């Protein structure tokens, strides 16, 4: 039997490329949380960032995640502007 691969952490570039909102699984990966732990924390209202409940889904925002991780939102917007200006 193969061992289950642990999800790898996200790189800085992957964090900056996240969409405006994403699933709790993506947030768990970015925060190095296991799936069971992440969903349990969200259900208890103890998740490290704000979690939005949309029907049966949990969603998180890029803004909240980057803010929690200490990445300034202005820095991200500057990177996006620079990328657009190059095109």
From TrEMBL:
Origin: domain of life: Bacteria
Protein name as catalogued: Integrase
Provenance organism: Streptomyces litchfieldiae
């Amino acid at each position: 039997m193969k061992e289950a691969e642990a999800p790898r952490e996200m790189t800085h570039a992957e964090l900056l490329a996240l969409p405006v909102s994403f699933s709790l699984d993506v947030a768990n990966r970015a925060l190095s949380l296991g799936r069971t732990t992440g969903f349990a924390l969200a259900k208890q209202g103890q998740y490290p960032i704000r979690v939005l409940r949309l029907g049966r889904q949990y969603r998180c925002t890029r803004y909240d995640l980057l803010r929690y991780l200490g990445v300034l939102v202005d820095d991200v917007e500057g990177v996006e502007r620079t990328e657009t200006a190059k095109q």
